[in-house]
Structure formats: structure tokens, C-alpha cells
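Re-run with default settings, no changes from the original entry. Doing this only to confirm the output is reproducible before filing.
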Amino acid sequence: MANLHRGEIEAEIGGAKRTLVLTLGALAELEAAFGAGDLVALAERFGTGRLKANDLVRIIAAGLRGAGETVTDDEVARMAVAGGAAGYVRIAAALVAATFGTDP
């Protein structure tokens, strides 16, 4: 079960309930992937609300890896979620909100 106090969320991805968390390592991975100089720059990028589909894949995959799953970005890109594109956006937004303490 996800613990919001640790920044964890739970979401159904690929037909299974999964825990996601952006650990320090996962955040470092996202900083590198997005070319963000620091956590503030990363949070600002997420805060724009203008994310590409590939960005959503990276965020969700990093969250799954942060929770201990061994998945690649390509594997996550092939996983289905309820609600289609809007479902991916909701998952990424909830994960970012749990991590940075903002409302999704």
C-alpha cells in the first residue's frame, strides 16, 4: 500500500496495481533526462503543465523504478492505463504532487 508521507502513490498500470515513488535516485534520473540543473528547475518544468507523451513515460517509469520495479521506459510506454492519455497525465501529476508536496 502506498504511503503518501513517503511520496508514494498507487496506480493501476498495465493491468496491475503498482506503487510509484520518485526517490532521490529517480529524481536524479529525471534531472538528467530533462536537462534540469537542479530540483527547482525540474519542479518548474513539471509545473508548466506542458509535458510530452515521452515526458509522461519517463516520469512514470522513474516512479516505478524508484519503487523497486525493473522496467524500461519502452516497457512502460507499452503499458495501458484506464482513461488513456488523461490517465497517464493523472498518474504523473499525482506522483509529482506527492513528491513536491503540491496539489495535483
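The helical segments are 24-34, 39-47, 53-66, 73-77, 84-100. Residues 4-100 form one domain.
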